[in-house]
Amino acid sequence: MSKPVYLAVYNTLADWEPGHATAQLARAGYEIRTVGPTLEAVTTVGGLRIQPDLALDDVRPSDAALLILPGADLWDTGDELAPFARKAREFLDAGVPVAAICGATAGMAREGLLDDRDHTSAISFYLAATGYGGGERYVEADAVTDGGLVTAGPTEPVAFAREILRLLKVYDDEAVDAWYRLFHDSDAEAYAVLEKAGVL
Fold this sequence. Notes:
Elements: E1 5-8, H1 19-27, E2 32-36, E3 42-43, E4 49-50, E5 54-55, E6 66-69, H2 82-93, E7 98-101, H3 103-110, H4 124-128, E8 143-146, E9 149-152, H5 157-167, H6 173-185, H7 188-197
Parallel strand pairs: 1-2, 1-6, 2-5, 6-7, 7-9
Antiparallel strand pairs: 3-4, 8-9
């Protein structure tokens, strides 16, 4: 049985960013466990209330397959989410992958986790504003995986999920490519590939 995937949840979380990844991982048999700053309920930017399964302090990399960090307004308005970036460092140091999208990439930058990894985000100067040292490693791409860390911008939840599915080897490369073409490009021909692979 696979270890669970931890999904970080916090106030102002961008609802649309982790959904493709978590839905597909759950369909593939992964348990998705939500991790909040505490066990108190949080409210997403879309107004959904989420009751965390775990508090951040109780999360151990050895218990998880992956940590997903969605974007949120709070990443850019102070240090409230900095503990999640520190937890990401703990995961990466333990060899457990992390996936960060949108504002969470700025959190990774502030924590120094992008200084020696190829990465992307919404746009290069968004990360440059953090004062981080990894500007030369910025890649103009929909999503990037390097050193166990997936990064993506806010408009790329499907590419973000694609990189996660590849990283965890949920499906073979042909099936992941077809899944991306179906959900990103509305490529009807990809449906047959996924059906044959037993993904749908």
